[in-house]
Amino acid sequence: MPRSRKLEAVPDSVADAASALIVPPPAADAAPAQRLDRTRSDLAEFLRLRRERLSPAALGLPAGGRRRTPGLRREEVAALAGVGLAWYTWFEQGRNISVSATFLENLARVLKLDAAERRHLYLLAHQRPPAEPGRTWCTVPPQVRRLMDDLPARPAYILNLRWDVVVWNAAAERVFGFGAQSPGRRNLLWMLFTDPAMRQLFVDWQAQAPAMLSTFRRDFASAAGVPDIAELVDELERVSPDFKSWWREHDVHGNCMGVRSLHIDSLGDVAFEHSTLSVDESRHLRLVVYAPAPDEPQARAFAQWVARKPARGPRE
Fold it and tell me: Is 11 helix (H, G, I), strand (E, B) or coil?
């Protein structure tokens, strides 16, 4: 793609002449679907409106005399984004051309798009959201906490990308005993492979642990370059032979929902349906909820058990 060597204010008459001389790109082999036509129309309108809301002065550009329309000209956006005028014009007109994520990032910067607008740009241009950098967040909105508290008989907790247990409700404390862990070790993966109580809690731990680990591996792939997640894996490989063996199998087929049995003191094995719901996709926060399976005979007994305060410690 050609780059502009020098950015100057260009009169509207010159811009109109340049647009008139643009040669359209080669036609696609097949006519675009009606849905894509609509998306390209939306893209063209979105880019035009975002371009027109910016003033040249806000980007350090000369006013360049009288402008018939507000905002930046196409050639100014093209130069700031590092592409040629003709190519950018095709893109803004919704032509059927391919664009890279690097260009979209540059364009989002030039147009001063916020996070929601940047995501919208990607959806219109690529039909998929942008790849977000992996980060571990440790804050949860208050309304999510209240939602969890409204599930008194449903153990629920929130994990971040590293699988730290960020917040949990009373039922989850009763079952998993998160509060007994030090803050630095309140990590579901760490507890799963180093805490003997977790081995007793998960019925058929030898099958459940590697399945959960395979789900974590998908998160690990999203967290390339995040030091604290790599450190967690390194430490678990040192202290847990099971983790080390399963981790090197590179299995990624873990399910985010299904049925899992837990051994509850005084009740025995209880079957739970578990589901993982996205709370904040951009921050990689997920809500995990356990509910007794519909045909679980101990469901009522579990609700009564979870409502009682333990005699000592987080578990009876």
Answer: coil
pTM of the model: 0.65
Dist CA 229 CA 164 (whole Å): 10
pLDDT band at 141 (very low <50, low <70, confident <90, very high): confident
What distance, in Å, lies between the first and last C-alpha atoms of the chain? 67
30-to-27, 33, 40, 42 alpha-carbon distances in Å: 8, 9, 16, 21
Backbone angles phi, psi at 259, to 5 degrees: -115, 135
Residue type at 3 in one-letter notation:
R
Task: Indicate the CATH number for domain 142-307.
Answer: 3.30.450.180
Distance, in Å, from the CA atom of 225 to the CA atom of 134, rounded to the nearest integer, reads 8
pLDDT band at 107 (very low <50, low <70, confident <90, very high): very high
Residues 158 and 279 sit within 8 Å (Cβ to Cβ): yes
> Helices marked H in the chain — which ranges?
12-20, 34-52, 74-81, 85-92, 101-110, 115-126, 142-149, 170-176, 188-194, 196-201, 205-222, 227-239, 241-247, 299-307
Closest CA to 56 of 2, 110, 126: 110
| Total Cβ atoms within 10 A of residue 315 | 16
How many Å separate Cα 210 from the centre of its chain? Answer: 23
**Given pLDDT bands bounded at 50, 70 and 90, which one contains residue 19?**
very low
213: left (phi over 0), alpha (psi -120 to 50) or beta: alpha
**pLDDT tens digits for range 121-135:** 888 887 676 665 545
CATH class of the domain defined by 12-126: mainly alpha
- CA dihedral (31, 33, 34, 39) in degrees, to 10, reads -110
User: What residue type is assigned to position 312 of the chain?
Assistant: R
- What are the structural domain ranges in the chain? 12-126, 142-307
Contact residues for 303 (Cβ-Cβ < 8 A; gap 6+): 153, 292
